[in-house]
Specification:
alpha+beta
Length: about 100
């Protein structure tokens, strides 16, 4: 599947697995070099709104800072994990709340 997506033209494909069942949240990066897996412990919270947008934005920021793609994915995933871990400190809206983007402040 991942290589099939790459056959459509992109040099790399990142597939996130945050909605998969299990204790881990695995993401996979497919490049010409092969597959790289990035796993993190699943954090129990209802505040997961915006995880995909947060991951892609953090990844874009890391790439803009000059990080190599695998390091950028690892750093973006680590940032997202912390934002999810601190999400319960927010009390906004209703339903699935957002992740805590400003957890480092």
């Amino acid at each position: 599947m991942y290589c099939g997506l790459r056959a459509l033209g992109p040099e790399a494909v990142l597939v996130k697995g945050g909605h998969l069942p299990g204790q881990e949240s695995p993401d996979v990066l497919a490049t010409a070099a092969g597959l790289s897996w990035f796993e993190a412990e699943r954090i129990p919270t209802a505040n997961t709104h915006g995880t995909g947008c947060t991951l892609s934005s953090a990844l874009a920021a890391e790439l803009a800072k000059g990080a190599a793609l695998p390091r950028a994915v690892a750093d973006a995933k680590a940032y997202l994990a912390e934002a999810i871990a601190h999400a319960n400190t927010l009390s906004v809206g209703s339903g699935h709340g957002p992740v805590q983007h400003f957890h480092e402040l």
